[in-house]
């Protein structure tokens, strides 16, 4: 029982039990209408990214991401602007 999937209602109704599972080292994946939406993991367990960093397989970015340039003002519908650019 390393990874358990529970729905939102099940998690709400049995939160203490699921937190006990997490405390004992298990991961709980929360689903909403069958789709995974969150994961509850033990605090002491490194994330996959932290693990890859410690193994030297990935490195943090050397520079911060640059902000996007300011938008260029334009008038008209997008389709019309694209058609104009294609001419």
Gist?
This protein is of the alpha+beta class and 87 residues long. The protein has helices spanning 8-13, 15-23, 48-54, 78-86, and strands at residues 3-7, 27-32, 35-40. The protein has a domain at 1-59: YefM-like domain (YefM-like fold).
Describe the fold and architecture.
The protein is elongated, with a radius of gyration of 23 Å. It has a 3-stranded mixed beta sheet. It is of the alpha+beta class. The chain has a domain at 1-59: YefM-like domain (YefM-like fold, 3-Layer(aba) Sandwich). The chain is built from 4 helices and 3 strands; from the N terminus they run βααββαα. The mean pLDDT is 90. The termini are far apart.
The CATH class assignment of the domain at 1-59 is: Alpha Beta
CATH superfamily of the domain at 1-59: YefM-like domain
N- and C-termini, Cα separation: 61 Å
Tally of extended strands?
Answer: 3
CATH topology-level fold name of the domain at 1-59: YefM-like fold
Poorly predicted regions? none
Proportion of strand residues = 15-25%
Sketch the topology as an H/E string, one letter per element: EHHEEHH
Pick out its properties.
single chain, 87 residues, alpha+beta, YefM-like fold, 3-stranded mixed sheet, 4 helices, elongated
SSE topology sketch:
Elements: E1 3-7, H1 8-13, H2 15-23, E2 27-32, E3 35-40, H3 48-54, H4 78-86
